[in-house]
Amino acid sequence: MNDQLILEAGRVKDGTRALVTGGGSGIGQSIAAALKSAGAGVLVCDADPSTNPDFVVDIVEEAAVERMFIDIEEQLGGLDVLVNNVGIAGPAGLVDEISTEDFDRVLDVNVGGTFRVTSRAVPLLRASGGGLIVNVASTAGISPRPHLSWYNASKGWMISATKSMAVELAPKGIRVNAIAPVAGETPLLKSFLGEDTPERRKKFLATIPIGRFSTPEDMGNAACFLCSNEASMITGTILEVDGGRCI
Predict the structure, then answer these.
(1) Quick one: pLDDT band at residue 184, thresholds 50, 70, 90?
(2) Which residues are 176's β-sheet partners?
(3) How far is CA 24 from the centre of its chain?
(4) Does residue 45 contact residue 60 with C-beta atoms inside 8 Å?
(5) pLDDT for residue 65
(6) How far apart are CA 168 and CA 163, in angstroms?
(7) pTM to 2 decimals?
(8) H or E element at residue 68
(9) 23-67 pLDDT per residue, tens
(10) Is 44 a residue of the active site?
(11) CA distances to 157, 188, 196, 205 from 202, in Å
(12) Strands 81-84 and 55-56: what pairing?
C-alpha cells in the first residue's frame, strides 16, 4: 500500500483524492465531510442537484458515469479513495406486492450503480499505486427485515462483493471494506420503518442494545477509520455500525 494514499493519525497525506457517491445528503454527506476534515480532496456526486454536488449524476446511466470519471481525471489527475454510498430502499411491501419497476430500480441503483462506478474507478486506483474502497452496506444484508426483501438482497450482494473485491484487489495494494449501518436519522428512515411514527420508532429502538438510532456522523467516523493507517491490515471486513443490533 502506498502510504501517501491513506490516513495517518486522523489526517490524510497531502494529495489524497476521494470520490463519494451520493454525497449530497445523509451518510454520504457525513463521510465526505469527515474525509475533508482529515485533509482529503473530496469530490461528491449525487443525482439531486439541490444538494449542490460536484457532479450531478444518476449512476444507473453508464454514459453519465463515464463523463464524471473523465472530469475526475481532468480535475484531480487520478483517484485514491472511492466511497460507494449511493443506495435506495424502494417501497416497503411483501415480496409479491413489489412491482417489477421498483425491483429493477433498487437493483439497478444499489447493485448496478456500484458496479458501474467501481469498474471505472479501479483502474485509477491501480494507476495511483494502490488505494481504498469503502462500500456502504447495511445491517439489512446481515439481519434482514421483512417487507424490504429486495433491498436486503442488494445489501447482501454488497457484502459479498466487498469480500470478493478485497481478495482480488489486495495484490494491487487496494483495500476494500464496508460499513453496515443500522437505521438512523437519514432520508431512508421512513422506508425502513414503513411509516415514521413514535410507536414504530420505539419498536425498532428496542432492537438496538445501545438504545438510539445511528447518526450520519457515526458512519463518517467509521468510514474514516477504515481509510486510516490504523486500519492498514484490514480488508474484506464488514464493520457493523449498529449499536449491537446484529449480535
Answers:
(1) confident
(2) 133
(3) 13
(4) no
(5) 98
(6) 9
(7) 0.91
(8) helix 62-76
(9) 999 999 999 999 999 889 999 999 999 999 999 999 999 999 999
(10) no
(11) 29, 17, 10, 5
(12) unpaired
